[in-house]
């Protein structure tokens, strides 16, 4: 059956398409090809997601070498969900963002840019599809290097220091991860994750494993932008080309969180006594601090993209908080929030990319009155923002509901966590409403006064994304099923 | 037509109306005609539901399943049927009035105004017909958001500030207190369905139930129990038809309606009766009744005075609901209607005075009753209803609340009602006196008579309703006895 080859197709497709996209400089051709490849990956990801709801895991032996000897691709509900996020965000951003990309990327570089984009997609998909620790590292490097290129590809000189900071910190993170798996390989002699899980039981001297836990967790926390290791994130988001922001804000940190959860819940948990409590005790305070501090910064931030970047750091806190509750409902909340937040934040950044085709500056003062000039763009922004706040009827409400429910079920500390979640929702209301009031201000700025609404096809893409936040708020079946299966899969090792 | 179809209509009509209003934006006459037609159609649909409900049926319609065990479901029961019937009836009158006001005042952005007005009504229908707390919550938030552009209508800094306070207090309380209360209820009871007799008994300890009740009463910020009442005076920057919408038709009514629903169908009267801190909330509501009246005494701006009067009157409903006697629950339900008729009349009158004479300060009202006799007579009827004197609607509800207080031997409530009656008289009667029996201090800058005729017609209708309800309250009372049925 050809469907059995889908896991191989989804990771090989985008990188294979990359050199083709790089062949023809200048024209829109490379854009069209990249968008097409991305859409094809999205379609495959959807097929895989549907298949993944039926079984625990789809295992694919590369070159028919059976695991643990050969390279294994392993598609679980969790990885299928992440794949949907990655390929979906990439497709929406590429299709909707052509005008913005054309103005941001110099024509001479465009074909290389789209090749890098496809490599980034391929790398990210590879991370979540791979069942092998070293392959994850390789894909991590592929995606990171490609992402650095994407961020620096625009004309903005401020992107260069931002990307350099990201590069240094990202490399430290990746190195830590590599040291960690090196230590595990030393003690177990395997790189296959499933195999690692069973063999780690036989390790008698646990000290290197403890060190490995530290390195892997810290390295991934750094790459995921968990507070207080988030310092690379705001500028990287703020100064990259606007459509790139929409893409990476939707998926790149979440992929690192995926690897983090995979290691901490599955590889380490089964063997190390009390690791779950250490993990929760380490991450929960970070999550709470991240939620509160980053939301507070977002409330005072005057630049639209930096504000949303800080909001992203707070939302990463939600995901980590859900995971650190160590319960099925908590993990479900965290994982489904990956999906819901990607949808909302991707839409918001895409709307900003549209605004940026009309305005040169994106501070709150600069966008004064833009809501009256571009009501449909801002309307979509607002719909996604409501999901970010977690108003009922939107996808964000579903994750908030599960998060509050899980926190309430987790005993005495739960009430406090509920308070944190709700207070930060109110902080989100505050920083979103600063945008609304500025956008619908009756005294428009000089540039905003002459701005025109973007063309209909762009709006159609944007509104598809915005309405998806409503759709998955009313019909949360698929993401919830995948998240729940991911949560039980991850926690299965605990029972 | 059957129950479920009518429920669908009640929800869909206002939304469809909003869409048609948007399409007709360049032709004001057509746009207003669409508004009126939608309001009338909605009213017919909702009122057609009533006979079924009075006969004891509970028509139900499930839109979709949101989460396992949590559906978006609508169920028509007596309290909701009454609220929906009230709101749909007053929407017609309010539309007539709005046409006069918006044109008479030459307001900007009239299309936006009518669109969001219709969306607010759709949200109100959702609240009234909601079959469980989750559904109610969804529409509760929709109402907050759809009324925000109405409050901020003028767009000047003052309107923005008022609207911001409005939004932040309502969203803050609902997300910060009501949402956790709801999730908590779901966590312990496993359901959020409105069930006669409540769902919490046996699922939660008395002490925690008290905390939960506090979360609900303060979290339902639209009920404006002190200290979460500040949004109501802040929202006075809105155009007068919006104030009428907020005070009489939709927003505050949605608040006290939700409190009553939670008390009757989530907690259950019998369970609440032995929750220890329940008394504290009675005192809080009683305090709000009196404190708000005292603040109203010192106001000179008519709309602010009316706003504080509303804060006070809303707590009548909360107070009555928390007395927990069967008759007081009926009193609470009826006071929603009685206050709506009276207060909408008062706001219509305030708006008419503003449009005709540009006066907002009650100290300038000397002699205005002779220039605007219809308006001021209607105002007087509304005021008498607020005080609670026959032959007006306010007397009927007060009668039931007092009867309930006697049933429960709750003398605190009786004392609050007595003092509040005096205070209401103290701030309404001087206005009436000044309007009719004092001479004008100076001639107004321009001669004026009554406001445009649609406004006068609207306020005459609502004043007549206030009087008629005194006599013809039988069906409503009979309907509301239904909320006591089905208790275990």
* Helix content class of chain B: over 70%
Q: Biggest β-sheet of chain A, characterized?
A: 2 strands, antiparallel
Structural class based on helices, strands and sheet pairing of chain A = mainly alpha
**What characteristic shape of chain A results from the CA principal axes?**
globular
Q: Tell me the greatest interface.
A: A-B, 27 and 26 residues
Enumerate how many helices of chain A there are, as a single number: 21
Average pLDDT metric of chain B: 87
- Integer-rounded radius of gyration of chain A: 21 Å
Tell me the Rg of chain B in angstroms.
21 Å
Helix content class of chain A: over 70%
Strand order of the largest sheet of chain B: 1-2
The fraction of residues in strands of chain A falls at under 5%
SSE diagram, text form:
The complex is a heterodimer of chains A (495) and B (488).
Chain A: H1 6-21, H2 29-52, E1 57-61, E2 72-76, H3 77-96, H4 98-104, H5 110-129, H6 133-152, H7 159-188, H8 193-199, H9 207-224, H10 233-239, H11 242-268, H12 275-300, H13 304-324, H14 328-356, H15 370-373, H16 375-389, H17 395-408, H18 412-439, H19 446-449, H20 456-474, H21 477-491
Antiparallel strand pairs in A: 1-2
Helix pairs in contact in A: 1-2, 1-5, 2-3, 2-5, 3-5, 3-11, 3-14, 3-21, 5-6, 6-7, 6-11, 7-9, 7-10, 8-11, 9-11, 10-11, 10-13, 11-13, 11-14, 12-13, 12-18, 13-14, 13-18, 14-16, 14-17, 14-20, 14-21, 16-18, 16-20, 17-18, 17-20
Chain B: H1 3-23, H2 28-54, E1 60-67, E2 70-75, H3 78-105, H4 110-129, H5 133-151, H6 157-189, H7 206-219, H8 231-234, H9 240-249, H10 251-267, H11 269-273, H12 278-297, H13 302-323, H14 326-357, H15 368-371, H16 373-387, H17 393-407, H18 411-437, H19 453-471, H20 474-481
Antiparallel strand pairs in B: 1-2
